[in-house]
Amino acid sequence: MAVRSASIPLLVLQVLIFSEVFVLAHAATRVGFYSSSCARVETIIKQKMQAHFSSDPTIAPALLRMFFHDCFVTGCDASLLLDSSHGEQTEKDNGANLSVRGYEVIDDIKQAVEAACPGIVSCADILAFATRDSVVLAGGPEYSVGGGRFDSLTSSSSDADGLPSDRASVTTIQRQFASHGFSVKDMVALLGAHTLGVTHCGTFSDRLFNFRNTGEPDPSMSADLVSELSMTCPNRGGVSNSEVALDQGTRDVFDSSFYTQLTQGHGILLIDQALNESPLTAELVSMFTNQGAFFSSFVQSMIKLGDLNIKGPNEGQVRLQCSKVNSQTMPPPAVPSSPPERPTTVPIAPPRRNPEFRHHVVSRRRFHFSSFDGPFIVEEIPSPARRFHRRSHIRTRRPVPVFLRPQLEKSTNLRKRRVITRKRISSSRHSRHRRF
Ligand code: HEM
């Protein structure tokens, strides 16, 4: 059916409105997110990662896995990093995460980042940047990572039940990946992360001795590898917990050798080898033996992974310690514990009321602060608007906490400036005035 020409602009408008609503409804990451608030953050993280990697190169696979386990469960929000407390088990303590390593490295990086830019950079972003640096340090491709992920306020062990199992079939994991918006190609490219790192005998030893209760080895594993691994993981009743490289070619190098190994029956995890056996994925395995093809798909899929279910400022916070939400780590509020019923005015240079405020202010500089109850954004009004805003009135739910003021004054050079507004970004009452 022909579309009448008059309806085309209407259609375009509808598409634009829809996409605008969609963009607003889903927080997203942005490359250069910290360029004005913490310009050195990526350099700090890179230097820290270089130091950790040079003393222990196995930190690269550890962080890569941590990133996947965090993002695949409730999105990239550092929910995996929260410690269990008060009898509430977090994702970290789910069986699927017990062998995830590297938390102390993220804590160390966080400390350095906090020293440079207090309360600005989320743990979720630190993990995303550190993971990218891990890939590069291990010889993998470079790529840009956006920032802007806020850290979750909660974590529940049962959420991690959604992580894929190495015993599942290709169609099962394909469904799991598809439910997060990943194509089959994304899935095969992401599993290429198994070019680094290790597993343990107990994970796959049935493939050596008694595959599916046949009393025989898994026929998809090469006979040479079966006999070699039978020495490392002997069938002595108990489970040996020796480490075995996931990529039998180059275990410490991020390259395409993992796929080449699969084509030779050298996959260690059942799911890895199954990628080469399934008609759904075998062609992709063969394609990714070409390193250029693998690297370019891996980068695209990692960026997609890093954008999964990003939390915006209303749903999360910038944690000050990655293992705890801020309410547990911050000093008690320096303001009255029960917030005032009626909005109060910021005590510095309070302007008078102007209902048109939100239409006139174009914020030039924003400063992010973390508080005991979530992040704040302080906006500095640019000079052309100042005259106007001297007569404006900015409402806030309560004053900037006393312990945040020195930080605020330092960052904004407040004493020299005249007009400052503040918004509590987690306040739903003010959300309709938000312009970012
Ligand atoms: C179907 C999906 C996946 C399954 C079933 C799976 C399963 C596993 C298993 C069982 C291990 C060994 C753990 C141990 O023995 O301690 C492992 C290790 C690893 N996984 Fe995956 N994985 C999957 C996808 C991914 C993805 C998408 C990534 C990253 C993007 C990833 C990165 C890693 C890394 C780097 C290691 C080595 C960790 C280390 O040496 O510390 N995995 N994975």
From TrEMBL:
Disulfide-bond pairs as recorded: 38-117, 71-76, 123-322, 201-233
Superkingdom, taxonomy of origin: Eukaryota
InterPro entries: Haem_peroxidase, Haem_peroxidase_sf, Peroxidase_pln, Peroxidases_AS, Peroxidases_heam-ligand_BS, Secretory_peroxidase
Reactions it catalyzes: 2 a phenolic donor + H2O2 = 2 a phenolic radical donor + 2 H2O
GO process annotations (BP): hydrogen peroxide catabolic process; response to oxidative stress
Binding site for heme b: 194
Binding site for Ca(2+) 2: 195, 247, 250, 255
Keywords, comma-separated and alphabetical: Calcium, Disulfide bond, Heme, Hydrogen peroxide, Iron, Metal-binding, Oxidoreductase, Peroxidase, Secreted, Signal
Residues spanning the signal sequence: 1-27
Domain named Plant heme peroxidase family profile: residues: 28-326
Disordered, as annotated region: 327-354
Record field: compositional bias (Pro residues): 330-352
Single annotated GO MF: heme binding
Active site: 69
Gene3D superfamilies with a match to the protein in the record: 1.10.520.10, Peroxidase, domain 2
Residues noted as binding substrate in the record, renumbered to the chain: 164
Cofactor dependence: heme b; Ca(2+)
Site (Transition state stabilizer): 65
Family (UniProt): Belongs to the peroxidase family. Ascorbate peroxidase subfamily.
Function as written in the Swiss-Prot or TrEMBL entry: Removal of H(2)O(2), oxidation of toxic reductants, biosynthesis and degradation of lignin, suberization, auxin catabolism, response to environmental stresses such as wounding, pathogen attack and oxidative stress. These functions might be dependent on each isozyme/isoform in each plant tissue.
Designated name of the protein: peroxidase
Organism field: Ceratopteris richardii
